[in-house]
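Weekly structure sync, notes
Attendees: PL (lead), two postdocs, one rotation student
Agenda item 3: pending single-chain targets
PL asked that the sequence for the first pending target be pasted directly into the notes so everyone works from the same version. It is reproduced below exactly as submitted, 208 residues in total.
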Amino acid sequence: MSATAAPAARDRSDFRTVTTGGALVGLVTGGAVVLVVAASRTLAGGAVRGGVEALLVLAAAVVVAFFPAQWTAARGTDGIAGAAAVGLVGTVVFSAIDIVLLRPFKAYPWTWDAIGGGSTWWYLPVWWMLGTFLAWMGGLVTAGQAARGGGAGEATLGRSALPAVAGTVVVAAIARLAGLAVSLPAATGGAFTIVLAALALVALTRKG
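Predicted structure, written out during the meeting:
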């Protein structure tokens, strides 16, 4: 007796997937922020502290950018849009964690608020846009990886995220060697965003 395998689920954008995935992304983001704050306050030595913070930023960025696409099995428009929605919900969940827990315990230095002219809320819409953008780009890259692999099973998390991680390391290292006046964690986050957007553009070009 032989049996055929059921086709893999793909392009999920239902309410449960979006809300559950978004809650997980928000919780992971909140945990990463707590770890970064803890590292900044406990680790001695600028190089060691910056390296640990950069690794935490990179790990959190991978979760925010690529996990939503894995949960929605992004292969087409619906899955990519679903991944972006997961990212948006994740930013809202993190905002709640930030307001209820991080702000009352003064997790951030006053200079963080000074960037926005003293406002404690300036970064929330920026974060909503950034988190949604990263998950959207991750969905595009994942869908492109699946298309090149010839099937839904080829777009694994490792294959989708590895080029972005490798590119981030290279770009961040170049930025540091060039003497740019930016911290290693900030350089890592900026490099990841730029590399991910570039990979998404390549995926769109190949698809077209």
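Discussion points:
- Residues 31 and 60 are 9 Å apart (CA to CA).
- Residues 15-110+123-207 form one domain.
Action: rotation student to compare against the earlier draft before next sync.
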